[in-house]
Amino acid sequence: MRNKNKYILTNIVIAFAVTMFFSCQSIQKNTKKGLVDKSMPIAEAFNVNLKYTDSGKLTAILKTSRILDYSNESFAYHEFPEGIVLDIIDKEGKISVVTSDYAISYQETGLIDMRGNVDIQTADSTHIQAKQLYWDHKINWVFTDQDYKSYLPDGSINEADGFDANQDLTIFNSRINDGVMFIKE
User: Fold this and answer.
1) What share of the chain in percent tops pLDDT 90?
2) Quick check: 68 and 44 in contact, CB under 8 A?
3) What is the pLDDT of residues 96-133, one digit of tens each?
4) Average pLDDT in the 149-170 region?
5) Is-contact 63 80, C-beta < 8 A?
6) Stretch 142-170: mean pLDDT, rounded?
7) Nearest CA to 76 among 40, 119, 46, 105?
8) What is the gyration radius of the CA atoms in the chain, in angstroms?
9) Is the residue at 9 inside a domain?
10) Cα(31)–Cα(121) distance, rounded to whole angstroms?
11) Running DSSP on this structure, what letter comes out for residue 29?
């Protein structure tokens, strides 16, 4: 009887070990095959203060309370679900500030899509409000096809259906305008 119990116990241990071996292999294979949800960010950061430099000179400061990193996707991007505050510093050290309720930055194209209460306050006191604004930071160009409103330092107000401009707004192309402009004689 003792040998029979020993035989049964040995079989149970072997069956358990084989089951555990195949279970571990199955979990390992499933993880490699992609049981990890690709719709989830690869990383998440909180209370971020990023500083961008060009040739050792500070050019921008990005502040956000949350970043989701989707660089694991085939078209990699970073999402800012709680909005951004972006300080853009020109060559003279003057700061323009861009804020939005939401933003998404595409790594491959260099395009940043800002949405919801987009607000630009330039160093020269020009103020622009839009529903959505794109910034191509590779070519330093901003544009929107949404309604926007601008307030110029001289008191002029402009409303239009969209615009495109260089980053420092010295070149500004607006479409279908309505507003009040002050012209010096």
Assistant:
1) 44
2) yes
3) 999 999 999 998 998 999 999 999 998 888 899 999 99
4) 87
5) no
6) 88
7) 105
8) 28
9) yes
10) 48
11) H
What CATH number has the domain bearing residue 169? 2.60.450.10
Q: Which residue has the tokens 């970043």?
A: 67
Residue 35 token pair: 């049981």
Confidence of residue 37 (pLDDT cuts 50, 70, 90): low
Number of domains in the chain: 2
Amino acid at 134: Y
Name the token pair of 65.
């309370």
Q: Phi first, then psi: what are they for 33, rounded to 5°? A: -75, -10
Q: Which domain holds residue 61?
A: 43-180
- Domain membership of residue 167 (yes or no) is yes
Could you tell me if 144 and 129 are in contact, meaning their C-beta atoms sit under 8 angstroms apart? no
State the amino acid at position 21 in one-letter form.
F
Write down the mean pLDDT value for the chain: 81
